[in-house]
Specification:
12 strands, 4-stranded antiparallel beta sheet, 3 helices, 8-stranded antiparallel beta sheet, alpha+beta
Length: about 210
């Protein structure tokens, strides 16, 4: 009779759902929490191993970057290169007096095995004897000793392998690898390359 009413053989009719097929109490909640945990773990991995967000503190990178700007910092597989803007970790920042040990931003001038010479009379930085083209600078470098920064008067540097020599784009307002107590930075202290300015939106774009 049932077969005649449905028009289908008994073995092709949709089976009726039993009570055991219904979701158990709390099952939907458990699946939702599981999804949230997976998303949180994914975000943690993303922002610690692949890329992260960092905010500019201080004026050492004026005018390239301004205090308070939010940046995207790329970490995965990154090897520092000359000319890159990099973010250094809290250990380095504490020496520089960063508030609360905040990460700081500098530009890579030279890498391991290279030499750096600074001529303050011509406001020129030489790497391996070649003058750098630095269009990002907005004023000439002044001799640090004339400003009372006697710990930054060295002009010749040899960069050890596995280290980088960094300077701020605001040369007259930056404590960097020129400082005798800091010098070249171990690459292990590099968190990544600052590649994109996110906020404020008026300054959104690639960091060069």
């Amino acid at each position: 009779m049932d077969e005649q009413c449905s028009g289908l053989p008994l073995n092709e009719q949709e089976p009726q759902k039993s009570g055991t097929d219904r979701p158990k109490p709390g099952q939907n909640l458990f699946e939702w929490l599981q999804m949230c945990v997976i998303c949180i773990l994914g975000a943690v991995i993303l922002f610690n191993c692949v890329a992260r967000l960092s905010r500019v503190s201080g004026h050492s990178m004026d005018q390239t970057l301004q205090p308070g700007e939010l940046m995207l910092v790329w970490s995965l597989g990154y090897t520092p290169k000359q000319g890159d803007v990099v973010v250094l970790n809290k250990t380095t920042a504490e020496f520089l007096g960063g508030p609360g040990g905040e990460a700081i931003v500098k530009r890579v001038i030279a890498t391991g095995g290279q030499t750096v010479d600074i001529d303050y009379e011509t406001s020129t930085v030489y790497v391996d004897g070649q003058p750098l083209d630095e269009p990002y600078l907005w004023e000439e470098m002044r001799y640090p000793g004339n400003m009372g920064w006697h710990q930054m008067t060295q002009t010749h540097f040899e960069i050890p392998e596995g280290s980088i020599f960094v300077m701020g784009d605001n040369r007259n307002g930056s404590t960097d690898s020129r400082h005798e107590l800091l010098g070249a930075i171990d690459e292990d202290y590099v968190m990544g390359k600052a590649c994109l300015a996110l906020t404020p939106f008026s300054r959104f774009g690639a960091i060069k």
